[in-house]
Amino acid sequence: TQLLEQSPQFLSIQEGENLTVYCNSSSVFSSLQWYRQEPGEGPVLLVTVVTGGEVKKLKRLTFQFGDARKDSSLHITAAQPGDTGLYLCAGAGGSSNTGKLIFGQGTTLQVKP
Amino acid sequence: SQTIHQWPATLVQPVGSPLSLECTVEGTSNPNLYWYRQAAGRGLQLLFYSVGIGQISSEVPQNLSASRPQDRQFILSSKKLLLSDSGFYLCAWGFGYLEQYFGPGTRLTVT
């Protein structure tokens, strides 16, 4: 059974601080996505990484896929209150046709002004 | 552009009553469709997925069922709801092993 472990589960920081969220597994994934979700809404896709060692930047967010495609990290620079939300990583494994995703349990981020 | 709709947005149902949640996708053809359930502040549990009309795969044995009567329509049902069926239900569409796009969700409370 493929599992994704996210850490930390909860993070409360002050505006302007930096933070990193980790997503780890013992399994290899074809691709890995990061989503952000606000209360009462569906998750919104932030990024997809597919190549081992790949690094993608989205403004103040930096995403990295591990060389062995078993882990990923999300780094936020100079966090803002608007970054508050639930961050989810999800890995794609198994048949490429079904597109089944395995989700981590999420990291709740609170950025205080 | 593609859009995904879910309804109702909120539902309160008594134990033992039936359930029907609907999801429709616009602007794409033959997508993979997915039903997830999410506990408060937690990750998503895949319930069902479909790669085509009438093709349903169940991930977790439970009190729920799913159907795909049309290419872009996905329905989640139950004949008799249990208290444990309460949660936030999300529908998503996608292709292959890349990203999925989620609907706004349905908050179900079973009383």
Radius of gyration of chain A over alpha carbons?
14 Å
Nearest-angstrom radius of gyration of chain B? 13 Å
Tell me which protein chains meet in the greatest interface and how many residues each side has.
A-B, 28 and 27 residues
Task: Please give the alpha-carbon distance between the first and last residues of chain B.
Answer: 38 Å
Going by helix content, strand content and strand pairing, the class of chain B is: mainly beta
Helix content of chain A: under 10%
How would you concisely characterize the structure shown here?
The complex is a heterodimer of chains A (113) and B (111). With 113 residues, chain A is mostly beta strands. Helices cover 0% and strands 52% of the residues of chain A.
Q: Which features does this protein show?
A:
heterodimer; A: 113 residues; mainly beta; 6-stranded mixed sheet; 5-stranded antiparallel sheet; 0% helix; globular; B: 111 residues; 7-stranded mixed sheet; 4-stranded antiparallel sheet; 59% strand
How would the blueprint of this fold be written?
The complex is a heterodimer of chains A (113) and B (111).
Chain A: E1 5-7, E2 10-14, E3 19-24, E4 31-37, E5 44-49, E6 55-58, E7 61-65, E8 71-76, E9 85-92, E10 101-103, E11 107-112
Parallel strand pairs in A: 2-11
Antiparallel strand pairs in A: 1-3, 3-8, 4-5, 4-9, 6-7, 7-8, 9-10, 9-11
Chain B: E1 3-7, E2 10-13, E3 19-26, E4 32-38, E5 44-52, E6 55-58, E7 65-70, E8 73-78, E9 87-94, E10 100-102, E11 106-110
Parallel strand pairs in B: 2-11
Antiparallel strand pairs in B: 1-3, 3-8, 4-5, 4-9, 5-6, 7-8, 9-10, 9-11
